[in-house]
Amino acid sequence: MLEIERASKTFRVGADTVTAVRDVSLSLAKGDFLTIIGSNGAGKSTLLNLISGVVPLTSGRIFLEGDDVTNEPAYRRARRVSWILQNPLAGTAPSMSVLENLAFASSRGTRSLRPALSRARRRDLLARLEGLGVGLERRSACRVALLSGGERQALAVLMATLVRPRVLLLDEHTAALDPRNAELITRVTCDFVRSLELTTLMVTHNMAQALEVGNRLVMMHRGEVLHELADEQKRRATVPELVRFFAHREVADDRLLLDAEDEERACPAPTASD
Ligand SMILES: Nc1ncnc2c1ncn2[C@@H]1O[C@H](COP(=O)(O)OP(=O)(O)O)[C@@H](O)[C@H]1O
Ligand SMILES: [Mg+2]
Domain boundaries in the chain? Predict the structure, then answer.
């Protein structure tokens, strides 16, 4: 479904260069759900941006459903690749209503600038809003700017999946939310991923979340994939093991490791006597 072959990205910063992604190869089958963890600046967002086409590769190739999309512009790839970012406002038009945002999202990848909303389409969109289970169907005429962070991100998930993409990219899309909303959005996202069989890549700094969802996990550091866990191996892995692995590689990242400590306190690893 999605093949990344030796992808690299080097940015020029003044007289210097920064290699954000270095020789990364990944092969994802339809329905694979890969979580990505790594220290700050590890290249996680850049990797997703290479897949969406927002950032061009320096070298390497990307294949989507067998098509070489390496040089396909992002707007064209958007029919098959959707993404959601951390900031709930980034994926939506705040001054437009909930329903207008959805109408725009469903016309993405076409040339339509003023998407017409037939009665049937309107009913369909309202039913989808209701399906989110957060009461957004009652606020469909509301400007998105007035919604809570959780409501906006629920809308962003619906918008990203409306066009039935093949690949869904999630860049810390629950990081700005309180724990209750983060859990809600994670559940809504996982429901869509499962029902639409989306091939999904999710960046998170929350190690427990990275272990909880998806069937594969990669750990990134300095632009490289250090380690991959899949299926049974991933199901059995624990947060302390991930922390030890990063520590062993001398990854010193306060946010990543402190968050992991918090998670351990909230949910201690089973001991031998358990
Ligand atoms: N547009 C850009 N221009 C220059 N450097 C960038 C750009 N985007 C990312 N970088 C650099 O690439 C590295 C990886 O960044 P990023 O992919 O955002 O990391 P992560 O998402 O894992 O925190 C960092 O050193 C960052 O400063
Ligand atoms: Mg990032």
Answer: 2-266
